[in-house]
Amino acid sequence: MMPRRTLLKGSAALGLSGLVSAPFINRLHAQESHPLAGQKIEMNILGIAGWLPSSLGVKMSPMFADFAKEKYGYDVTFGFAEAPFADLFQKAATSLATKSQEYNIIISDSQWLGALAKPGWILKLNDIIAKNKNLQLDWYSDTVVNTYMKYPDGGEDIWGLPQEGDTKALYVRKDLVEDPKEQEAFQAKYGMKLPSTFEDYENLNAEDYEKVMEFFTRPDQGLWGAAWQYSRVYDFCTCPQLSIMWSRGGDIWDPKTGQVEGILNTEDNAKAMELYKSWLKYMPPGATNYGIAEEIDVWTQGKVATCLQWAAVGLAMITPENKDKVLVVPPPKFGKGEEAKRVYCMGGQPWVLNAYNDDAKMRVAIDFLNWWYQPETTLEYAKRGGNPTDKATLSNPDFDSINPWNRAYKFMLEPGRSRDFWHHPRYSEMLAVQQEGFTSYMTGSTESAKQALDYIACQQQQILYDDGFASAGPSDACSAASL
């Protein structure tokens, strides 16, 4: 008897003994013959607690159950397990390490692809995609493929398919920036127009954005200019900080050689950290603890004029109370004139499939993905507040008007405006030391930004060298690196 996983891999290349290659039909056609017809299957999805895009996948699953019953003749139910961002990977890894089928489909953060793929815990999807035309989508940009699908970076192996696309966006108090009195006062103070349209912010650089933050920082009125993330939790300080570094022309590593030292810990990146820390004066007290939830709180309470937040959080940021007072725009560029650019962190999550699913659960999982990427499903997902990533949906002339953040999301999904960071299997360790170093400087525990960067670079260089990925270990200078 061949091991089940060996048999599954072989059959996947042939379309699961013809099952995967069976034509995927829409609900206008008659029920097709299906090997699971008459059966009842229970499926479980693991997703992110408190994260709307994750729950949307489950809330929409009854639609797939109806579809499967009508067209394939089987009954399927979905359970949902969840954990916060900071705990979800460990929850998935603990289960998968035992070859459990506890979670059949997992909503993974994009940076976990390597850590899940390297031990063989999730299924490589190249053959599945090749046998299912409905999974051969024209994605909106290569950024989608590189963020949610491929590991290792630059390779051709596909391990995930995008569940939720996500980019950074700037939420702006429309009622403030469109107020004629505020516009007049801003013009008088700075000699420039108060940015109040999408196009204004599309062209806005960080120097002029700082004027907006300064102008609206009025502690005596309970109003501050901005809320950005500085928290040590998960990747909250990392994402805006890397965005500023990239936008100023810096980098964080060489993904081909694993070299970090000398690339991350540069004087220019230190200046980017100094700039980011200086912006704390425009933010409410306690901003060094701000993550996603804290930003939502101060924004919906009307305490800040602008907020750098994920597009995926739009439904929480835009409430019935403030829905007419919010403008969602691209975040600022860095630099001046034609040289100015914006490169912000990608967010979002891919679907990945448990490699230990039995044949029935694997077939249902693939049926589910085929259904998920049908045009009517992706459009429904968008209408419920999700962010699809396929070109057909995003190119729909009505897409920009479906949600207030859609235009900014699509703008930032264009090539070169957003990028992901490491997909390496040692991602969590690299992130932990980075968050430690960034927040140590932001909170004043470490006085020098360069000192914090030296510490991070040396620690990350050691992690990658110990892994065998980096060709060089830390330099002798690292013996003195500390926070």
UniProtKB/TrEMBL annotation:
Pfam families: SBP_bac_1. Coiled coil: none annotated. It is found in: Periplasm. GO terms for cellular component: periplasmic space. SUPFAM superfamilies: Periplasmic binding protein-like II (SSF53850). Its main location: periplasm. The keyword Transmembrane does not apply. Residues 1-22 form the signal peptide. Keywords: Periplasm, Signal. InterPro entries: Bact_solute-bd_prot1, SBP, TAT_signal. Belongs to the bacterial solute-binding protein 1 family. This is Sugar ABC transporter substrate-binding protein.
